[in-house]
Each structure stands twice: as C-alpha cells, then as structure tokens.
Amino acid sequence: MTDQLNPSHFAAWRDAASPDLPIVLDVREPWELETASVKPDGFTLLHIPMQSIPDRIAELKDMHGADHPIACLCHHGMRSLQVANYLAQSGFTAVVNLQGGIAAWAQQLDSSVPQY
Predict the structure, then answer these.
(1) What would be the CATH architecture of the domain defined by 3-108?
(2) Rounded to whole angstroms, how far apart are CA atoms 14 and 111?
(3) What is the pLDDT of residue 56?
(4) Range list of β-strands (E), the chain
(5) What residue segments make up the domains of the chain, in order of their start?
(6) Cα separation, 88 vs 106, whole angstroms
(7) DSSP letter at 107?
C-alpha cells in the first residue's frame, strides 16, 4: 500500500528528500492543469496524464531513477493513488500519494490555487 501524504505535511516530506529535489507528478488531464496548478517550490513539477504513465514509465525511471522521491497529485487523490500504486509495483521505492489532491493542497497550503 502506498503511503498517503497530507498536504499539510508536504514541506517536511520535501525537506527530508534532500539532497534530491523531489518530484510532484501531476497525473491530471491537460485542461485540469490549465485550470489549477501548484507552483514548484523546492520540488520539480512533472505533468504526465494518468493514461500516459504506462507508456512513459521507463522514461521516468531513466530520467530520475527508481529511488527518486515522487509525490503523485490529481484532483481529489484517487487517480494519483492508482498511479502511485502502479509506480510502486513497477519498482519505484519512494512514492507517496498527495491525499485529497490539489483540492486539499488549495485548502491547506495555497488558497490562490483555484478550486474546480
């Protein structure tokens, strides 16, 4: 089972990932990203829509390595949980799911992120 990370604990998780710059893997659709997005702050924001993950998993592993810290993000945390579980089953070892998705992020960390 993939660890759930409450957005209110994100900064501590991000800081513990040092010296690696962790990845927030946004698995939402392009229109969702245009509607609302997090601002990279001490992390790399990477957008790969959920349906593209299987085709791009080797690229992700080659670019960053299987041990690179990754926090998966979607709208409410369900799609990202599926992706996080898939990554973990595919050999990624430092994957968490951002519980509640960008909606929780907006409520807990950054009220400038639009709700939709």
Answers:
(1) 3-Layer(aba) Sandwich (3.40)
(2) 20
(3) 97
(4) 3-5, 23-26, 44-47, 70-73, 95-98
(5) 3-108
(6) 26
(7) H
The residue to which tokens 């089972």 are assigned: 1
Q: Is 16 exposed, middle or buried, given 0-12, 13-18 or 19+ CB atoms closer than 10 A?
A: exposed
90 Cβ neighbours under 8 A, 6+ residues apart: 57, 61
3-state secondary structure of 90: coil
Asked if residues 71 and 10 have their Cβ atoms less than 8 Å apart, the reply is: yes
* 6-42: pLDDT as tens digits: 999 999 999 998 788 999 999 999 999 999 999 999 9
Strand partners, 76: none
Distances in whole angstroms, Cα of residue 18 to Cα of each of 12, 39, 55, 69: 10, 19, 29, 9
The amino acid sitting at 97 is N
CA distance 16 to 39: 19
